[in-house]
Amino acid sequence: MQKIRQLLLFMERGFSQRSIEKETGINRRTIAGYLKRFAESGLSTKELLLFDDRELYAYLNAGKKEQNKDPRQLHLDSLYEYLTSELRRVGVTRQLLWQEYIAESPDGFGYSRFCELLQEHIRKRGATMHFEHDPGKLLQVDFAGDKLHYVDSGSGELVECPVFVAVFPFSGYSYVEALPNASLPQVVRALNNALSYFGGVPLSVKSDNMKQWVTRSNRYEPTFANMLEQWANHNNIALLAARPAKPKDKPSVEGGVRTTYLRVYAPLRNETYSSLSSLNSAIWEKLNEHHEKNFQRKAFSRKELFEGQEKGIRPSKYIFV
Length: 321
Known about the structure:
The protein has about 325 residues and is α/β, with parallel strands linked by helices. The chain has helices at about 1-10, 15-25, 30-40, 45-50, 55-60, 70-85, 95-105, 110-125, 185-200, 225-235, 250-270, 275-290, 300-310, and strands at about 140-145, 150, 160, 165, 175-180, 205, 215, 225, 240. About 25% of the residues are buried.
């Protein structure tokens, strides 16, 4: 455990894996394995260093016990980022989130246990769990982990499509599009379509360190793709990148991807489409239905919140097709 603590300290101080190997004598393959475990814990190196040896050992070996873990716990673990981001929204309560959770997972935890586990998760995260969002300030973008498909009418081939998701954290209003591929030109085209859909531009756009976005990762000064920088300058938008392996830096789009699975993927799962355009038409139809539904226990929808308080903050000078 002393070696592991040394490894954490070197990571906290920004040492490279090569330097850590030289200083500690731990080979880089082992270091990479520990880095993966640290990332999977969901905690920062500072937070891990606060644990005693027994607690730290438990976190590093949690994956070995995963197969024996209660399936309900595994499912709830996957929802924590979404739940904590939703709790920051005005009027959203634990009771409301539990009602939505139990409606989708009838065999899930009861209300008191749900609250207990959620509170324990928030306590472990501490001050990192508090975010406030201003209207029109930030747009978060990402690709969904699962792809959608259509059947090529000529060859009968099943064609995989990566799915682009963009979300305004303030209103939860989003844009979703299936792309022919995940290349940078397609990402820029999807960004243009998103701005056209929103009818304006945000102050900044944030994504993770995907290769289309960042050509060189750096915690403080990442290097963005040249085409992307030209697009941002053209629209007077600041580019931001989440820290590597830090999904909590963009929880809204992580939640937006989950919402896309629920409101778009699920309703379309038994449908077959013969072209990318017909697939996207179906996506946008389901997306619009989602936007027009009122929030739980509220008298307004995401669309009304977006159009009433967010749209028009920075109208776009450009119309994209």
